[in-house]
Amino acid sequence: MCDYGYNIKIGENFYSNHNLLILDEASVTFGNDVLVGPNCSFFTSVHPLNSGLRRKGIKRAKAVNIGNNVWICGNVTVLPGVTIGDNSVIGAGSVVAKNIPSNSLAVGIPCKVIKTL
Fold it and tell me: Which of 44, 48, 53, 105 lies in disulfide reach of 61, CB 3.0 to 4.6 Å?
């Protein structure tokens, strides 16, 4: 399921399992040879913490970029503005709130690099 659909760019040999959710108010780009496990979510919308601004419907969006040869395991959430570098693996159940460099194994809530691949 996607929000708009026209902000999504998908490279060659992309595979996604069941229940992929992409809220694409900004661009969401998947490189080549990307595997996405079941129940993964990619968000681009950023809502203000100030309740008055939220009630006015003010929000902004930040792009999400997934590099080449990336494996995103099941039940992962990728938050606005995140880039996941080439040849990286994101462990199951992780919440990715910050950029992940290339050649990394990253896991957890919040997601952190635990090993260089």
Answer: 44
